[in-house]
Amino acid sequence: MRRNKPDKKSILALVSLLAVTAIGGTFAYFSQDLYAANEFQTGKYDTDITEEFIPPSDWQPGVTVDKKVQIKNSGNVDVAAVAKLTESCVRREDITITEYYTKTDGTMGEREVALDKPGSHQDDRLSTIFTPKNSVGEPMQPEEVAIKNFGANNVNVVMFDDSLTTEEDYESYYKDKWVCLRKEITTDDAPEVTGPVYYFLYAGLIKGGQTTVPLLESVTMNPKLESTVTNTKLVADVDENGENRYTFTATSSEYGYDSVHYKLNVKAKTVQATMAAIDSVLVNSEDGSDMLPEEFAGLLDYVKGLCRE
Fold first, then answer.
1. Staple 156 to which of 38, 151, 176, 303, CB 3.0 to 4.6 Å?
2. How many CA atoms, within 13 angstroms, populate the side-chain half-sphere of residue 47?
3. CB under 8 Å to 78, separation ≥6 — which residues?
4. C-alpha to C-alpha distance for 264 and 259, rounded to whole angstroms
5. CB-CB contact of 116 with 122 (8 Å)
6. Tens digits of per-residue pLDDT, 275-295?
7. What are the distances in angstroms from CA 246 to CA 39, 99, 115, 169, 250?
8. Which 3-state string (H, E, C) describes 95-145?
9. Rounded Cα gap, residues 307 and 208, in angstroms
């Protein structure tokens, strides 16, 4: 009997089946895991008020004290800046003079009496404004106790001018300078004391690593101020009846600024240089709007125009 030999096709099919079985009956595909790491580094926001100032202990009329105030951007985020200067004069101690009087036994006595003047022990707050008189005793223009020196020739600080309204005006007169507006304000803490407040807006952006020009250079005590008591004198003589007669005289100014503690307060606020940030922080917040008078609206729009969206 003759056996049939398997043909080549059958042998190849069997080999293929065995190969599939050998790898567990599965099919293999090429695959690869891919990753892309996207890292965003945030900007550094860091600003400061810098001052060059040594507080004097014996400040006197006509004496100038250096007080250089600037804003420094130590970060790498562009910022806009506003500032405000306020002042106060507070009596540090009661001012007294020696008063001479005749006792009931006819002898001369003396006693210390507090000066009954504005700013004495009865009211320790003094206005930062006083009104000097001319040689014939007529009132002159009100003047400030402390004269603020913002720098010469409008190099760093320009006083606000409401006749400048266009972007071309701002570019020509204000760009990269502090714009200052002086206003008379009655404070909530001392409503009866009126003094000037100085508002500042920087007409530009403070780039990362940059420091602004000074918004203040120095302060001078007004030379027209005088001591409260400049002279006291006791005169003793005899009257027509041969009795001792005593006369006490005192020469004093009307301002009363002896032993006054004067403060110049500097408050500044910086904000990220975007339109949305400026609106949120300076325009729509109570603290920010307190730093920004309504007269600065047009100038603020100019600064916003320098910002990115």
1. 151
2. 24
3. 205, 206, 207, 208, 272, 273, 307
4. 16
5. yes
6. 999 999 989 888 888 889 999
7. 90, 12, 21, 69, 14
8. CEEEEEEECCCCCEEEEEEECCCCCCCCCCEECCEECCECCCCCECCCEEC
9. 14
* Inter-residue contact 145 to 130 (CB < 8 Å): yes
CA distance 221 to 285: 36
CA 305, 68, 268: angle at the middle one, nearest 5? 45
128-134: long-range contacts (C-beta < 8 A, 24 or more apart)? 128/87, 128/88, 128/89, 128/195, 128/196, 128/262, 129/194, 129/195, 129/196, 130/222, 130/225, 130/255, 130/257, 132/224
Residue with tokens 């001078």: 220
Side chain identity at residue 233, one-letter code: K
In this predicted model, what pLDDT tens digit does every residue of 95-143 receive, in sequence order?
666 666 777 877 777 777 665 554 444 456 778 888 888 878 888 888 9
Q: Which two tokens stand for residue 109?
A: 């006595």
**What secondary structure does DSSP assign to 275-292, as a single string?**
HHHHIIIIISSHHHHHTS
Structure tokens at 69: 């105030």
User: Which residues fall within 8 angstroms of residue 276, CB to CB, at 6 or more apart?
Assistant: 309
